[in-house]
Every structure is written in C-alpha cells, then in structure tokens.
Amino acid sequence: MTELDWMEEFPGAITIADTKGQIVYLNQKAVQVFEKEGGRQLLGRSIFDCHKPESGEKIEKILRTGLPNIYTIEKQGQKKLIYQAPWKIEGQVKGLVEISLEIPLKMPHFIRD
Predict the structure, then answer these.
(1) In the predicted structure, residue 1 carries a pLDDT above the cut 70
(2) Whole-angstrom Cα distance, residue 80 to residue 60?
(3) Among 3.60.21.70, 3.90.79.10, 3.30.450.20, 3.10.180.10, what is the CATH number of 3-103?
C-alpha cells in the first residue's frame, strides 16, 4: 500500500495520460465509466482516440500552456464536473489528469468572503 492507493477507490473517475497522450492510469471508477470504450483495455492507448478533434485541441493546449480546462456536462440525466489539468514534477508538465465527478443537477452555492 502507498499513499496513492486512495485514488483507486475515489468516487470520481481519474484518468492520467502522459505528455504524448498515452493513458497511463485509470482508477476503478474510470474503468467503470469507460467500460463500453474498453475499460482497463484503454491503458496504453491514446487519450486523443477517446475525444473529438476539438477536445483533443483543448488537451494539447493544457499540455502546452499548463492551464486547466474546467467545465460541467449533463449526460443521461447526470451532471458532472470535468476538471482537466496538467500534472507536473518540479514545475515541468509530465501529462494530464482528468477528474470527472458526479454532481447534483441543483446544488447549493456559497459565497464566502
């Protein structure tokens, strides 16, 4: 067991790709979410094959600029927060992390100053 084992059972889908877009990690939730696309068989495949060209351009921009891409989607009545960001080691971009969290259609929003 290591400190990173928490990701395996994390309730959100975590997908990690290297700088070339090769998928190097899928947690249990990501395997479940992407079961129709191959689940664990996606390891080693290109994340660009799993996205439309315009999404691929956004991923390339994240890898190039180091800036995240954050948005929500609704699919089959389920709303999700998608957070795509670079992962870095000593300031150098080493790849991309995508976290997908299921969220309520309506949820409280608080402003805290």
Answers:
(1) no
(2) 22
(3) 3.30.450.20
